[in-house]
Amino acid sequence: MTVKIILTEPNKILRQVSKPVERVGKEEQKLMNDMLETMYSANGIGLAAIQIGVPKRIIVMDIRKDENKREPMFFVNPVIKNKDELKSTYEEGCLSVPNQFAEIDRPKKCEVEYLDYYGEKKILKAEGLLATCIQHEMDHLEGILFIDYLSKLKKSMIIKKLSKIKSTRIVV
Ligand code: ZN
């Protein structure tokens, strides 16, 4: 497993719409392993393939945040089948929008159809943090970031801040 570099906003690649996976093979499984390693090393609870520059509809998640009890979840070609009318609010962050957080409303429950690590069709009934996390990650597949739900002003302030950090960052 390899830890990959996580792309950060502003970056056009993050705005791409990811493509469906035709079949889950060795290559996809290796990608999922690398994504998981990358997510854990960055202390995240979810990661979409596009965040490491791969435009495939693949997501990894582990919402437990417990180093001693890993419970990884893998989603290939996820589709939301049902959404709750009721909303829940979480303060969201994103590995591609470092150190920025904002309260976002999303449907409280949702049902997601997807292929798992072995390419088997599964259905997940998600609620609470799990529902929010999967919806956040699925947004990445459409090139959407959580800051897109904020006011124009707030969003542009965040992007400005991130651009500034990027332009002064040196890697030696
Ligand atoms: Zn994210």
Q: Topology, please?
A:
Blueprint: H1 26-41, E1 46-48, E2 58-61, E3 73-83, E4 87-94, E5 97-107, E6 109-115, E7 121-127, H2 128-141, H3 152-168
Antiparallel strand pairs: 1-2, 2-3, 3-6, 4-5, 6-7
Zinc ion (ZN) binds next to α2.
Describe the structure.
- The chain has one domain (12-168): Peptide deformylase (Peptide Deformylase), CATH 3.90.45.
- The protein is 27% helix and 30% strand.
- It is built from 3 helices and 7 strands, in the order H-E-E-E-E-E-E-E-H-H.
- It has a 5-stranded antiparallel β-sheet with strand order 1-2-3-6-7. A two-stranded antiparallel ribbon has the order 4-5.
- Strand 4 and strand 5 (97-107) form a beta hairpin.
- The longest helix has 17 residues, at 152-168.
- The radius of gyration is 16 Å and the shape is globular.
- Zinc ion binds next to helix 2.
Notable traits:
alpha+beta, binds zinc ion, 172 residues, five-stranded antiparallel β-sheet, single chain, Peptide Deformylase, two-stranded antiparallel sheet
Please give a quick description of this structure.
The protein has 172 residues and is an alpha+beta fold. Helices cover 27% and strands 30% of the residues.
